[in-house]
Amino acid sequence: MQWNKIKLMFILAFLVLNIYLIFQLFPQEETEQLVLETESQDKVLSTVTGYSELSDEETEPNQQYEAKKLLFTEDELEKIPSKDQMDLDISSRNQLVAKFKEPQELPIEVPIDEDKEQTAEKLSTFVDDYVLHGNDYTYWGRQGNKLLFFQKTSEGQTYFSPDSMLLVTINDEYDVTEYTQTYIEDFKKSEHNGDLKQYSEKQAVKALQSQQYIEANDTIEVEKGFYPTIELSSKPNYAPAYKITVNNTKHYFYLLLPDYPYVYAPTESGFLSSLQPETEETQ
User: Fold this and answer.
1) Which terminus of the chain is less hemmed in, N or C, by CB atoms within 10 Å?
2) Alpha carbons 159 and 138: distance in angstroms, whole number
3) How far is it, in rounded angstroms, from Cα 84 to Cα 167?
4) Nearest-CA neighbor of 164 among 142, 144, 186, 191?
5) 3-state DSSP call for residue 21?
6) Which H helix or E strand runs over 279?
7) Whole-angstrom Cα distance, residue 249 to residue 117?
8) In whole angstroms, what is the distance from residue 160 CA to residue 279 CA?
9) 223: CB partners within 8 A, 6+ apart
């Protein structure tokens, strides 16, 4: 009887010891795995051109911004350069559709993105000559017969916002037939913000690399800007974002949202498709 009690005590002691060792082993394995992943990520990023020049200081806060949509009025139409050459439609109030009476030749024969900087510079001349507040728009790129521009505010560049964009339509001869414009004003920090956190450029790049959007020997560029978020009011809302360009071809956004940062990879075709119902309605 005594021997049975002793055996039971040994069994219980070994059971407790095993449970203790298991709890000690798992955190160690998780720690080792985390170290391996970090070492692997650092190894990849050490080969990425442009990464070493980025800042690792957490300086960009997730401070939200809001703006007002410009109402296109008859008074605003009077400010449009060369307005007599266009038929203007402001029936939707927040959107201007301008159709040229005669197609207008672009200052560049074929606007393509191989030399985007030169293309943007030449297209800005056309925009300044025919568009209200034309110098506030930055050329993004071409999708089919559409040239896409986004508005730059006093706080920085906006991206992929239906409320701050210019969409230019060209024909087969690369002449402009019409354009659709939206514009925001009074761009400022929102009063509805919780606890503000700060994020660094390198933190944004690491988030992309962890999702395999950045690979060894890639080239990256990082710029700060603003990306639209879901509107909780009648005012357009924007989140600060790091725009990360990979190999001059792919664009990703690291959105600094109130709850947690989010990586998003928009496409021009998807953005234009989202505008289609509104565009058809106003034409």
Assistant:
1) N
2) 10
3) 20
4) 186
5) helix
6) helix 268-282
7) 14
8) 16
9) 157, 242, 243, 245
Cα 26 to Cα 49: distance, rounded to the nearest angstrom = 37
Distance CA 11, CA 245 (A): 61
The token duo for 109 is: 């024969």
Given a cut of 70, whether residue 182 has pLDDT beyond it is yes
Nearest to 113 by CA among 141, 153, 75, 93: 141
Which of 179-202 are b and which e, b meaning 16 or more Cβ less than 10 Å from the residue's Cβ? bbbbbbeebeebeeeeeeeebbbb
Of 267, 226, 49, 86, nearest in space to 168 by CA: 86
d(CA 159, CA 245): 13
Q: Supply 4's token pair.
A: 């049975």
* Radius of gyration for the alpha carbons in the chain, expressed in angstroms and rounded: 27
Judge whether 194 and 258 are in contact, CB under 8 Å: yes
Whole-model pTM above 0.70?
yes
Distance CA 158, CA 65 (A): 11
Task: Provide φ and ψ at 113, rounded to 5°.
Answer: -95, 5
Phi and psi at 165, nearest 5°, equal -140, 165
Tell me which H or E stretch contains 194. Answer: none
The whole-number pLDDT of residue 12 equals 54
Supply φ then ψ for residue 218, to 5 degrees: -75, 165
pLDDT in tens, 71-122: 999 999 999 999 999 999 999 899 999 999 999 988 776 555 556 777 788 8
Cβ atoms within 10 Å, residue 206: 19
The single residue listed with the structure tokens 């051109």 is 49
DSSP one-letter code for 260: S
Q: How confident is the model at residue 35 (pLDDT cuts 50, 70, 90)?
A: very low
